[in-house]
Every structure is written in C-alpha cells, then in structure tokens.
Amino acid sequence: MDQMGRGEPVDNPTGGPNSLVVIGARRLSTELGDLAERVNAKQQQAFRFDYSFDKDGDPTNAYCRSDHYMYARYGIPVVFFSAAAWHVDYHMVSDEPQYIAYDRMARIGRYIRDVVGEVADLDRRPVVDKAKPDPDGLCKQ
C-alpha cells in the first residue's frame, strides 16, 4: 500500500475518486488478481480498479520500482494498491495531514483488510501460474 490518504480531485487516479490503482495482481498469480477483484465486488461500494500503472511499458516502471517487487522477484505473488498515483506532494514536506481524505482512506483500509483475510483463509498460498522473474535480473515493465 502507498499513498492511501490522498483523495482530492487532483490526487485521484485517472479513473476518478472511486478508483484504486492496482499493480502486480496478476503478474505472478491469476488467482491473486481474481481474489482481489472478487473481494472488491462484495464491497458496499466497489472500487474502479486502475491498472494503467501495471501495463508493460509504463513510463514510471511502477511494478519494478516499488517495495513489493522485492518479494515478486523471488516468485512471491504481490498486489500493490495506491489511492493516489504520484500526487503533487509525493515525498515532499508539503504532504501534510490536512490533505488526508479520512473516509476514503478508511474505506480502502477495510477493503484491503478483506483481501488479506481472504488470502489468509486459503488452505495454501495463491497459485503461481506465471513465469517467475530472475531475482538477479533487471526488472523492466
């Protein structure tokens, strides 16, 4: 998870205020991506998933450069969520609490809690059905 608190119109993913950026969900495990979608469909108000940062050729190389890739490079399935993709205050001292959209952040937190609960209730790890990357190789989307 990253940037969960932002929610102003200028901060929202390209899909708008009901969007949630999703990265890596199906890159190693179709099952994990399907689980994230299924849990989302059960929410009182489902999110519109924004996969634009997960596409091959993404100029930000988001999948490769975030913390979750340290797991994925060893074949551990990941799903990375972001509420605001690189907002104007990203990594700046101007990123202050008055900009937090608390209701949105709580809603996202409940959804992610539900995803984690579903994964924890599986009787095994999510199936890895995609090629594992070379852990020492260069990651490029």
Written account of the structure:
By secondary structure, this protein is α+β, with helices and mostly antiparallel strands. 28% of the residues lie in helices and 8% in strands. It has one domain (19-121). The chain has 4 helices and 3 strands; from the N terminus they run E-H-E-H-H-E-H. The chain has a 3-stranded mixed sheet with strand order 2-1-3, with no helix packed on it. The mean pLDDT is 89.
SSE inventory with pairings:
Layout: E1 19-23, H1 30-41, E2 48-50, H2 62-65, H3 69-72, E3 80-82, H4 102-121
Helix pairs in contact: 1-4
Features:
single chain, 141 residues, alpha+beta, three-stranded mixed sheet, 4 helices, 3 strands, globular
* Count of distinct structural domains: 1
Share of helical residues: 25-40%
Order of helices and strands: EHEHHEH
Shape: globular
N-to-C span: 19 Å
Instruction: Please count the helical segments.
Output: 4
Strand element count: 3
| Overall mean pLDDT | 89
Unreliable segments of 5+ consecutive residues: none
Q: Which strands sit side by side, in order, in the main sheet?
A: 2-1-3
Rg, rounded, reads 15 Å
Gist of the model:
This protein has helices at residues 30-41, 62-65, 69-72, 102-121, and strands spanning 19-23, 48-50, 80-82. It has 141 residues and is of the alpha+beta class.
